[in-house]
Automatic annotation (TrEMBL):
Catalyzes the reduction of the glycolytic intermediate dihydroxyacetone phosphate (DHAP) to sn-glycerol 3-phosphate (G3P), the key precursor for phospholipid synthesis. NCBIfam families: PRK00094.1-2, PRK00094.1-4. It comes from Thiohalobacter thiocyanaticus. Its EC number is 1.1.1.94. This is Glycerol-3-phosphate dehydrogenase [NAD(P)+].
Length: 334
């Protein structure tokens, strides 16, 4: 029996890794990216030489340059950066509406509006399309190499979450399900801002104590805003919350952490991003979280200092001093 076709839309490192995972699971997968020349090169090389060099595409994975060819699929998985999310959903709206379901692996908020991605999806696709989000501690290269990984798939209805989790689940990938899409989306967005903070701390030459404090108090900020926006507290203690937070705050594979490291070492954001040459979601997210936190009167001192470093030219050292100079208070986890 031939397994159904899945379109993975977005051929960066994470889209490619998920496409490889799905193909290894025995699905027929079409990986689409918006640069025809890059997609043709990928098809010819049998690997994504730009983002995941050295990892050969398994049988069943086809790189395509034509969106229509990709969309002739039974399932759609969107894995573009958040800045391209609405635009890509608009391009695939008719097919998503016809299928009645869609999933994404994008982490972040819509730039300028600060909307969660399921809100963007509802605006573009309507309320009838069931939406699932995939999130967790999942560095693309490790997933593509087949290293054991766990993540969560959330959707408002558990059947949709289970459907997409079932596609992803395999010998090396454990997919849990959840109905807390808000919690998953906020965890995946806020951890990127906190990874920048951890990177700044390490870039300044601080130690393990500082990093552990940032992770712990950062988790409190994530839970505070997450609960204020309707997420469930326990979600932030799971893979898409503390799991992804620890991953990206502690390992240099994280682009967000590397941006922070560079800032802490005295480089500018532009210099750091030019060197990383991949999407660094936390930089835009820091501004949206700053706005949302203020609008909901949620105290988020670490995220606030990251915002000030990125958008107000505050020196990283001064940001740390501002955190340490805050009024003493009892340790609360809410
Ligand atoms: N990498 C990882 O380990 C993980 C990433 N994620 C999330 O997945 C999302 C994608 O990240 P990732 O793949 O790593 O990013 P990359 O920087 O590796 O790749 C981004 C890809 O998106 C493409 N792109 C940019 N604009 C558009 C557009 N308008 N239409 C279609 N494609 C576009 C880029 O093309 P071009 O190069 O031509 O600009 C590039 O191929 C992010 O939200 C990230 O946070 C989630 C979990 C793990
Ligand atoms: O989200 C990720 C891993 O779960 C990737 O993190 P970075 O975008 O910081 O590299």
């Amino acid at each position: 029996m031939t397994s159904p076709a899945i379109a993975v839309l977005g051929a960066g490192s994470w889209g490619t890794a998920l496409a490889i995972l799905l193909a290894r699971n025995g699905h027929r997968v079409r990986l689409w990216g918006h640069e025809p020349v890059a997609m043709q090169a990928m098809a010819a090389a049998g690997e994504n030489t730009e983002f995941l060099p050295g990892i050969a595409f398994p049988p069943g994975l086809e790189a395509v340059a034509e969106l229509d060819a990709a969309l002739a699929a039974d399932d759609l998985l969107v894995v573009v950066p958040s800045h391209a999310f609405r635009e890509v959903l608009e391009q695939i709206r008719d097919r998503a509406v016809a299928l009645g379901r869609i999933a994404w692996g994008t982490k972040g908020l819509e730039m300028a509006s600060g909307k969660l991605l399921h809100q963007v999806a509802a605006e573009v696709l309507g309320e009838q399309v069931a939406c699932a989000v995939v999130s967790g501690p999942t560095f693309a290269r490790e997933v593509a190499r087949g290293l054991p990984t766990a993540a969560t798939v959330a959707a408002a209805d558990s059947a949709t979450a289970e459907h997409f989790a079932g596609l992803l689940r395999g010998e090396t990938f454990r997919a849990y399900t959840s109905t807390d899409s808000i919690g998953l989306e906020l965890g995946g967005a806020i951890k990127n801002v906190l990874a920048i903070a951890a990177g700044i701390s390490d870039g300044l030459g601080f130690g393990a104590n500082s990093r552990a404090a940032l992770i712990t108090r950062g988790l409190v900020e994530m839970m505070r805003l997450g609960e204020a926006l309707g997420g469930q507290r326990e979600t932030f203690m799971g893979l898409s919350g503390i799991g992804d937070l620890v991953l990206t705050c502690t390992d240099d594979q994280s682009r967000n952490r590397r941006l922070g490291l560079a800032l802490g070492a005295g480089r500018t954001r532009a210099e750091a991003e030019a060197e990383i040459r991949q999407v660094v979601e936390g930089a835009d997210t820091a501004r949206e979280i700053h706005n949302i936190g203020r609008a909901h009167a949620v105290e988020m001192p670490i995220c606030e200092q990251v915002y000030r470093v990125l958008y107000e030219g505050l020196a990283p050292q001064a940001a740390v001093q501002a955190l340490l100079a805050r009024d003493p208070k009892p340790e609360r986890l809410g």
